[in-house]
Amino acid sequence: MSKKLTKNKKKILEKISSKKKYSLEEAIVLIKEINFVKFDASFDIAVHLGIDVRLPNQMVRGTVLLPHGTGKNICILALVPKDKELEVKKAGADYVGLNYIEKIKSGWTDIDLIVATPSVMNQLGTIGKILGPKGLMPNPKMETVSVNPGKSIQEIKSGKITFKADRYGIVHASIGKVSFSSQHLLDNIVKFMKIIIRNKPSTSKGFYIRSIYLSSTMSCSIPLDLKIFANT
């Protein structure tokens, strides 16, 4: 016997059509309307790409500086030599210093991101098995290995995010908060999609963008009309 639907779920089901693909403006308004959590939920995007992730030359990954940020406070550990410590502290790093390598070995990973300089990367081999599965290993392609770590940290704190297709060829990202204005969310989504499209592998054949869904924390997903980004 199926459970009785709550009033909120009934409202959601009434508003969303499984047969319709929504415009960006419609989807943003709808996500705001069906958000019933009592906290400021993340506004998320999922882009299913027509790529073969088994092929190295079809991996899609990169960074994008969102014009209005993410609304999140990103906790950053800076693994840099002594002469760079003051620079990264001024830039906003939450934790600084190579002494954190030993702390990570003991199981500490209470951070969102690690920024490192190329000169210290050879010291991270001993913690690679800890950082790798958590997606914390600094990577030049994600611009978290930098000769200018202060600038990298400032950009991340200002709204630069990293993205990478998962094993199903789907890129997931949080591109704001439900409390953001509709225009700010729209600006962030458009900028994000421009970078995704710009990163299309030359070896990818057929349809590159297969589907795009918007959602918020614990909400239903809203499918977008792909024609929105045809000329992006």
Give your account of this protein's structure.
A 4-stranded antiparallel sheet has the order 7-1-8-9, covered by helices on one side. Strands 4-3-5 form a 3-stranded parallel sheet, covered by helices on one side. A two-stranded antiparallel sheet has the order 2-6. 27% of the residues lie in helices and 20% in strands. The chain has helices at 7-15, 24-33, 85-91, 100-105, 128-131, 149-158, 182-198, and strands spanning 42-49, 61-65, 76-79, 95-96, 113-116, 160-164, 170-177, 209-216, 222-223. The radius of gyration is 20 Å and the shape is globular. With 232 residues, it is an alpha/beta fold. It has 2 domains: 22-70 and 160-229, Ribosomal protein L1/L10, rRNA-binding domain (Ribulose 1,5 Bisphosphate Carboxylase/Oxygenase); 76-146, Ribosomal protein L1/L10, domain II (Rossmann fold, 3-Layer(aba) Sandwich), CATH 3.40.50.
Summary keywords:
globular; Ribulose 1,5 Bisphosphate Carboxylase/Oxygenase; 27% helix
Mean pLDDT over the residues = 90
Give me the CATH superfamily of the largest domain: Ribosomal protein L1/L10, rRNA-binding domain
What percent strand? 15-25%
Report the strand count: 9
The secondary-structure class comes to alpha/beta
Low-confidence spans: none
Separation of termini? 47 Å
Q: Percent range for helical residues?
A: 25-40%
The CATH topology of the largest domain turns out to be Ribulose 1,5 Bisphosphate Carboxylase/Oxygenase
CATH architecture annotation name of the largest domain:
2-Layer Sandwich
Tell me the series of helices and strands, N- to C-terminal: HHEEEHEHEHHEEHEE
- The overall number of domains is 2
What characteristic shape results from the CA principal axes?
Answer: globular
The CATH class label of the largest domain is Alpha Beta
Give the strand line-up of the largest sheet.
7-1-8-9
Radius of gyration: 20 Å
- Discrete helix count: 7
